From TrEMBL, chains A, B:
GO molecular function annotation: hydrolase activity
SUPFAM superfamilies: Nudix (SSF55811), Winged helix' DNA-binding domain (SSF46785)
Origin organism lineage: Bacteria, Pseudomonadati, Myxococcota, Myxococcia, Myxococcales
Keywords associated with the record: Hydrolase
UniProt-recorded name of the protein: NUDIX hydrolase
InterPro entries: Nudix_hydrolase, NUDIX_hydrolase-like_dom_sf, NUDIX_hydrolase_CS, NUDIX_hydrolase_dom, WH-like_DNA-bd_sf, WH_DNA-bd_sf, WHD_NrtR
Keyword flag Coiled coil: no
CDD domains: NUDIX_NadM_like
Species assigned in the record: Archangium violaceum Cb vi76
Amino acid sequence: MSYTYDYPRPSLTVDCVVFGLDDEDLKVLLIKRGVEPFQGRWALPGGFVRMDESLEDAARRELQEEAGIRPNLMEQLYTFGAPERDPRGRVVSVAYFALVKLSDHRVHAATDAREAAWFSVYDVPKLAFDHADILATAHQRLKGKVRYQPIGFELLPPKFTLTQLQRMYEKILERELDKRNFRKKLLAMELLEELDEVEQDVSHRAARLYRFDHKKYKQLEKAGFNFEL
Amino acid sequence: MSYTYDYPRPSLTVDCVVFGLDDEDLKVLLIKRGVEPFQGRWALPGGFVRMDESLEDAARRELQEEAGIRPNLMEQLYTFGAPERDPRGRVVSVAYFALVKLSDHRVHAATDAREAAWFSVYDVPKLAFDHADILATAHQRLKGKVRYQPIGFELLPPKFTLTQLQRMYEKILERELDKRNFRKKLLAMELLEELDEVEQDVSHRAARLYRFDHKKYKQLEKAGFNFEL
DNA sequence: ACCGCATAGTGTTGGATGGACACTCCGTCA
DNA sequence: TGACGGAGTGTCCATCCAACACTATGCGGT
């Protein structure tokens, strides 16, 4: 089977930058390439767009196939189309940006006979194609966006302590925050539901758990509220 | 001549949302379609991407061909790829966002035997394809971006009065600003060069002209300065 | 020459917000 | 029961922001 057109067409792919967070660092999901070009190199998960699926559907399908991951939060990042970005010919790639709770996804990282792994964003191996650019763009977007949209919660488990929350922001923004000011500000937004539970299995005083109130945020957002830092 | 591939490929186009500003309103550039589908409908300027040009080059080429316009400021907006967005088949379009000084471009609007015109953003005819979505996305982006990046200056002539500047922000943000607070804030940034000139041909006291200092802004930006409102 | 008009230009105050800063509380483990 | 590690909590000061009204100037018409 082959397909013929009057004018040449670029290939169209999607690539995904999936971020996760663990106790050490902000992590990104990479896949080891099994075929040329760049065989053996690490790369972002991704692949060709099918004719009957939307771009985001393609990104979600590739993530599912290559790493068994179904992110809650996914959005389009940028489209990379430099003529020489792929040695096989003209390939335009729509990049997506996703956040996952690492606790949900640590196990599934290596599926489908492909090698998949989480790497610290600050210590990434040499990547295939222009994937280093794509990753840099995504990282920048995350750093910018986390300050004015409450997306960081997608990186944490559903119930978290205020210290976990603060560490998350500190790792993403790459600067330290003041504990008292941070708590004051977050609690003043009234977007955190205080639970009657505390963390378990810690060898010191256990911290209270909170949950992010998505419903309330959507309401406030409609009313013109702006989340900030 | 024809081109054959092992797998089907979508067509790839670019579309441009070009904003301009005049005394009345924020304007957007539209082209009347001369061919099916949507013959006779107004649409965003755009066209197919060639195999050897980057996406932005394609957008600039189409703008030049269809409307004789060379914007200073142009950036990628979003990629639209819903499977049914074009009745001719699968067409994925990378949308670009541009700002121009209308004074430079009023004349050239209708060139190349195509009909091109500026429409008020608040009174746009029914558009072809999903161009209404693209326009809405671009308009939203403009409203958001103008507050934290000094891009609004691309809509004004090189020399402008503070009142013109304020009107520009008011039209884009769709709310009134306080004259004194606005001037205080803008002048405090020290990004406006005060010229020894005043506006001409007005039948009242002439206002002083200013120029935006791009060089100084780039320096301050590197030093961590953030333009805001 | 004068007057009217339209727009230019200019400061102060009160309230809210943001950043700096240090100690006590509590649970665990040795 | 004492030491350790992290949880939790309030004040002060500086800065930013919003609200607010009058005088100055140049032109055009009479």
